Amino acid sequence: MTSGSLNRISAFTTNPLEGNPAGVWVGDTLPEPNIMQRIAAEVGFSETAFVAPAVGFDRTVRYYSPEAEVSFCGHATIATGVVLGENGGEGTYRLATSIGVVPVTVRTQNGNWSASLTSVEPTYTRASDILVNEALDALRWKRDDLDSSIPPARAYAGAWHLVLAVADANRLTKLDYDFETLKALMLQDGLTTLQLIWREKSDVFHSRNPFPVGGVVEDPATGAAAAALGGYLRAAKLITAPASILIRQGEAMGRPSQLVVDIPASGGIVVTGKAVRI
User: pLDDT at position 1, please?
Assistant: First the structure.
């Protein structure tokens, strides 16, 4: 078995009891897929990142949930950046993921480490009525709950997410969905999470992210979905780029997280967060 070190990091926070926990395994070579899957299941966090080699600014990364490999994971990338920064210093690390190279710029300020990932080129498609209706049924929501100013969409910045915006904050606070039904729908449509959002104001969004395909009821911070949302808002002209938004997530779970999303006029979306060892 390939040897390496396993780190437990909470991303998008400076409090180890908040944010989204991720495992970050670092070694000279990546373990076999079945070994990575077993380690991720044993760690039990929504994702564990596996990184090799152990030194240098160019690394290979793979992401595993407790149940399956994931194409890209934002919070585990932020966690990875902070681990690499602690071990190798500040700078920009180039992570070769299964969906392309993701640069991660790592810095420290006032004793806190933070990382900024730049996503692959984002894209989106309008969500079909069938997909939206089936998702609403699984969520036990109604069409009238949605915010018509942000139409439902399938958004991508390394992984696909279904974006559903609600008009009333109270609708977002009550999340009680049919786990197996939603999981089957997401597997059929190739979705990683649902990005359920409420827009408090032009640059502040609240988000909740069901993640049943990973065996997780809800993700407390989802960097990949944050990047996908930024790309969707820009491409659909729902925001004027360049722009910066704050996504507040995990509060209903008691694990508040803050994701800063910088949306340039073109190119990848930049997601920034702090992270701390657990």
Answer: 56
Same structural domain for residues 145 and 259?
A: yes
Contacts of 70 (CB under 8 A, 6+ apart): 47, 63, 64, 159, 192, 214
Domain boundary among 99, 118, 137: 118
Residue finishing a domain among 118, 139, 155: 118
Cβ atoms of 72 and 118 within 8 Å: the answer is: no
pLDDT in tens, 206-241: 999 999 998 889 999 999 999 999 999 999 999 999
Residues 6+ apart with CB under 8 A from 157: 72, 119, 120, 122, 224, 227, 228, 230, 231, 268, 269
| Residue 165 confidence (pLDDT) above 70 | yes
Question: 189-215: b or e for each residue (b if 16 or more CB lie within 10 Å)?
Answer: bebbbbbbbbbeeeeebbbbbbbbbbe
Per the structure block, which two tokens stand in for 142?
């109604």
Location of structure tokens 């065996």? 215
Q: Do 210 and 252 sit in the same domain of this protein?
A: yes
pLDDT for position 2: 75
Q: Are residues 108 and 131 both part of a single domain?
A: no
